[in-house]
Specification:
Protein name: Aquaporin
CATH topology: Glycerol uptake facilitator protein
CATH class: Mainly Alpha
Order of helices and strands: HHHHHHHH
Number of domains: 1
Radius of gyration: 17 Å
InterPro entries: Aquaporin-like, Aquaporin_transptr, MIP, MIP_CS
CATH architecture: Up-down Bundle
Shape: globular
Distance between the termini: 43 Å
Subcellular location: Membrane
Membrane topology: Multi-pass membrane protein
Family: Belongs to the MIP/aquaporin (TC 1.A.8) family.
Length: 221
């Protein structure tokens, strides 16, 4: 039985809120206590993504990311009529999650905002590359015999953790417009905000194109 759009949107709101609560929440906790370290924050993002995929994947697909929704649409795996409702649900969930994090943050906190470390151009390139890698993994492990199961969720969440671990110090390793826009909105820290939309969406679309090339059948000998 196909779930209603309302159920899917509720899952996306809830999932994206939880992503922000535990992901950016970990960044805020580390900002205050230094107990987690950068590796701990990256791990928190990977773990929450894994849990969300396993718990909400059967309901909405657990996109929890506008760039992923756009990527699935571009790949022909998601109906166009649901793209805008999904993106709106993800943005709403992200704002709710970031508002929850603000309750424990100290005054002046950026709420886990993603910021360029060495210039806009470098951060844009990094976000595009990281989002390309994430979307390509998602497309490759959610097709055919690998479409369902714990290993697909593990591969995706491990990619998030790995890319956050390596790219986080340089660009924040957002890979997700909702994840970046919500902290920016609630903290007022808007530095380079647009690149966290352009980079993830461009990376996701590039991954769709590369995935199609990888699926091309070799000509018969």
């Amino acid at each position: 039985m196909q779930l209603s759009l309302r159920q899917c949107l509720l899952a996306e709101v809830l999932g994206t809120a939880i992503l922000l609560i535990f992901g950016t929440g970990a960044a805020v906790v580390n900002e205050q206590t230094h107990a987690l370290g950068h590796g701990g924050v990256a791990t928190a993002f990977g773990l929450v993504v894994f849990l969300l995929i396993q718990s909400l994947g059967d309901t909405s697909g657990a996109h929890i990311n506008p760039a992923v929704t756009v990527g699935f649409w571009a790949a022909g795996r998601f109906p166009a009529r649901r793209v805008l409702p999904y993106v709106a649900a993800q943005l709403l969930g992200a704002v709710l999650g970031s508002a929850s994090v603000k309750l424990i943050a100290t005054p002046g906190s950026s709420l886990g905002a993603t910021l360029p470390a060495h210039g806009i151009g470098q951060a844009l390139g990094i976000e595009t590359f990281l989002s390309f890698g994430l979307m390509l993994v998602i497309l490759r492990v959610t097709s055919g015999s690998k479409e369902a199961g714990m290993l697909a969720g593990l591969a995706i969440s491990a990619t998030v953790a790995l890319e956050a671990l390596v790219g986080g110090p340089l660009s924040g390793a957002s890979m997700n417009p909702a994840r970046s826009l919500a902290p920016a909105l609630l903290s007022g820290v808007w530095t380079g905000w647009w690149l966290y939309i352009v980079g993830p969406v461009a990376g996701a679309l590039l991954a769709v194109a590369v995935n199609k090339l990888l699926q091309l059948k070799a000509p018969a000998a």
